[in-house]
Amino acid sequence: MISYPPPQFEEQKSEILQRYQILSEDQSAGPLCVADSIALALQTPFVIAALNRRYRQWYMCEHGLDGFVAADLQTYFARMHLSQTRFDVADMREEEFFSSNTQGLRIPKFQSIAGVPLTDPNGKRFGTLCIADDKPRQLTEAELNLLSSFGRLVSNDICVRSAARYAVQDLIELEHEKCDLFELATIDPLTKALNRRAFMRFSERELARFKRDNGQLATLMLDIDHFKQVNDVHGHATGDKVLSKLVAVAASVLRQEDLIGRLGGEEFAIVLVEADATAAAGVADRIRQAIKQVKFPSETGPFNVSVSIGVSEPFYNEASINDALERSDAALYRAKRNGRDRVEVATENVSIPDTILQNVDTKPMNN
After folding, report:
1. What CATH number is associated with residue 32?
2. Residues 223 and 159 in one domain
3. Among the listed residues 228, 226, 290, the one whose alpha carbon sits nearest the alpha carbon of residue 253
4. How far apart are CA 158 and CA 80, in angstroms?
5. Which of these, 336, 342, 215, lies nearest to 271 by C-alpha position?
6. Are residues 141 and 206 in the same domain?
7. Is 4 among the domain residues?
8. Does 211 lie in the same domain as 137?
9. Which of 220, 217, 189, 193 is closest to 205 using CA atoms?
């Protein structure tokens, strides 16, 4: 079922991120706990998962290396990727490979090191899990096997988190497409009001709710006075700006649950939820007055526009919202005949005076 108000992409994206907590800025708590566990289990002062650039941006698994430059640590431990199997160096002073090319790197003075490859289920290498000590140390076979187990654990953790990140990113992209498709299907591209089809669909839904809950509902028909003259004198581009501004002004008066749609040309319809004709007439007049205050720039100087509005209420025995809209339309044309720039309520709503909230301070534009 299509929902209203329409989904907003940033709100939907925020909800997805909050729900899954995958792409949030701080996702280091879990991997850091793993590193602490490795250090405790193997009684080693230093632990680091040296990773390819793609993973190190969001996954940090290390222990005992606070205060050292992360880039220098990753640069040094990147050479461990050359080993395709588990390795153990009890005394690095005897291995020039581990002590060379360290000038300028701000890293601890490692004396022993061991590591295991980190791979995905297909065997693709993406890093090395290393432990190091500041004194020579020979690991036992049991300790090396435990290190291998931790390597599989870290590999699996990275793969799961990476897959989750891709899945969440896909959800975000799908949500973006959903919002775009919703807009294409329901929103008038010029004014950002609902298009005719969407407005009628949502209005029928509000009518059904009005009947079910024995509530209140009101309809407004709104038309810009002498809009053809605006286009003829100031051009269609200016006329488009007037239409867009009219919707923006009306929307600022309406509530989020109210509906506004462009039915065609300069004619708009509004459905007010939980409002009778009296309340709707007040809302209509606030819209009328707000639009009159807007000055539109043009080559011949700034100008104003006025609107005429018709108000009606649906009846419980009516099968479609069209009946109320037709009465609002009739009231709208009565407002036109009575001088424009005014609000009229349908005569069928006998508890409301026929003519209300008329404007007398500004003459309408001449044809």
Report:
1. 3.30.450.40
2. no
3. 290
4. 18
5. 215
6. no
7. no
8. no
9. 217
Active site positions, annotated: 266
Q: Which two tokens stand for residue 81?
A: 């990727």
Q: What is the dihedral of CA 13, 259, 279, 315, to 10 degrees?
A: -130
- Supply the pTM of this predicted model: 0.59
| Cβ within 8 Å of residue 71, ≥6 positions away | none
- Residue 209 in any domain: the answer is yes
Instruction: Let me know if residue 365 belongs to a domain.
Output: no
DSSP 3-state assignment of 232?
Answer: helix
SS3 string, 191-251, reads CCCECHHHHHHHHHHHHHHHHHHCCCEEEEEEEECCHHHHHHHHCHHHHHHHHHHHHHHHH
Q: Which amino acid is at 365?
A: M
Q: Token pair of 272, please?
A: 């007010």
Q: Which residues lie across from 125 on neighbouring strands?
A: 119
Report the alpha-carbon distance of residue 137 to residue 133 in Å, rounded. 7
Residues 121 and 215 occupy one common structural domain: no
Domain boundary among 134, 169, 204: 169
Residue 344 shares a structural domain with residue 297: yes
Q: Compute the distance between CA of residue 21 and CA of residue 28 in angstroms, rounded to an integer.
A: 12
Spell 64-81 as b/e; 16+ CB within 10 A means b: bbeebeeeebbbbbbebb
The dihedral through the CA atoms of 114, 118, 121, 125 has a sign that is: negative
pLDDT in tens, the chain (367 residues): 344 555 565 666 666 556 656 555 455 678 999 999 999 999 999 999 999 988 888 888 999 999 999 889 988 888 888 888 999 999 988 877 777 767 788 899 999 999 999 999 999 999 999 999 999 999 999 999 999 999 999 999 999 888 888 887 777 788 777 777 777 888 899 999 999 999 999 999 999 999 999 999 999 999 999 999 999 999 999 999 999 999 999 999 999 899 999 998 899 999 999 999 999 999 999 999 999 999 999 888 899 999 999 999 999 999 999 999 999 999 999 999 999 999 999 987 645 444 444 443 433 333 3
- What is the domain range of residue 300? 196-356
Q: Are both 27 and 165 inside the same structural domain?
A: yes
Task: Tell me, yes or no, whether 277 lies in a domain.
Answer: yes
Total domains in the chain come to 2
